[in-house]
Amino acid sequence: MSKFGTLVMGPAGAGKSTFCTALIQHLQNNKRPCYYVNLDPAAEDFSFAPDIDIKDLISLSDVMEEMGLGPNGGLIYCFEFLLENLDFLTEPLDLVTEEYLIVFDMPGQIELYTHVPILPKLVQVLMGGSLNIRMCAAYLLESTFIIDRPKFFAGTLSAMSAMMMLEMPHINILSKMDLVKGQIPRRDLKRFIDPDAGLIDDDEARHVEEEKPGTSRNSDPAAVENVMGGSSFHQLNKAVANLIDDFSMVSFLQLDVQSEDSVGAVLSYIDDAIQYHEAQEPREPVEDEADARMED
Ligand SMILES: Nc1nc2c(ncn2[C@@H]2O[C@H](COP(=O)(O)OP(=O)(O)OP(=O)(O)O)[C@@H](O)[C@H]2O)c(=O)[nH]1
Ligand SMILES: [Mg+2]
To answer: CDD domains recorded for this chain (predicted)?
Structure first.
């Protein structure tokens, strides 16, 4: 028997928990069972009560208080503790059947997705061994990042970092599309959906136009010697953007959580990546109440 799940990841405040709520609601509306796992040891309020909540094992506030750690060190401690107590996760998940989509809501600390090898270990446990969950990572990046192009490419790099570290089916999502729709022409938006390195050149041209004499970031010669600035930054940004563009490594789906269609479209990519529908047994139609009455 297979199991199916999605790991909802991304930077702090990207809209992960809101997406999980919208996804669960959408699954319920479509009569699909869902199993909700909260792995954020700092999360407090939930629209749907989690079936598994890491806070029942360990909470970030307790760790910070008792161990004297800060929020980031505390989070790493919580995940190390989870890895030492995997039964907490594996025992209930073992009972979940193949009709369910298991939704994992992750914390937003970026170090989890960049350089700490905790997530790959967790993913190995979930996808391998007896659990054998078919998983798709859903990496959210806030769409407002597109206003600041170097920041957008930096965010795209963080998505790539997660992709490379986890080596699992992966979709990238631009969340909170309601905040940018109407603010940016559709043609321009396309250049962010499939990131186009030319965005950096256009951005540089815009900066040059806006920069008034004497206000240049390079106008202080001492600063130029010590700090990387102006054209050096541009070259670096351009090289990174070209790398992403040339290898077509990242593209984004658009998400507007208020729209049922938008959530449904993202879900269809997740289903496709984990081959959810292929594994489902044909279901008998539920007996119509009216038919049942007629037979009486
Ligand atoms: N306008 C708009 N706001 C959103 C959307 N999704 C989330 N938000 C808001 O963004 C904030 C953060 O949303 P969360 O869902 O808590 O984000 P998160 O990624 O789970 O945050 P952390 O778990 O703290 O990393 C909240 O104030 C949400 O109301 C969206 O699609 N549109
Ligand atoms: Mg959250």
So the answer is: GPN3
Instruction: Name residue, tokens 């702090």.
Output: 12
Q: Is any ligand 1 atom within 6 A of the Cβ of residue 144?
A: no
Do the Cβ atoms of 11 and 157 come closer than 8 Å? no
Rounded to the nearest angstrom, the distance between the alpha carbon of 1 and the centre of ligand 1 is 35
Q: What is the pLDDT of residues 81-105, one digit of tens each?
A: 999 999 999 999 999 999 999 999 9
Residue 35 · residue 101 · CB < 8 Å: yes
- Nearest in space to 269 (alpha carbons), one of 281, 255, 258: 255
Ligand sitting nearest the alpha carbon of 9: 1
Class assignment of domain 3-195+250-279?
alpha beta
Is residue 71 lining ligand 1, measured as CB closer than 6 Å? Answer: no
Question: Looking at this predicted complex, what is its ipTM?
Answer: 0.99
For residue 45, count CB atoms less than 10 angstroms from its CB and return exposed for 0-12, middle for 13-18, buried for 19 or more: exposed
In contact, 82 and 112? CB cutoff 8 Å: no
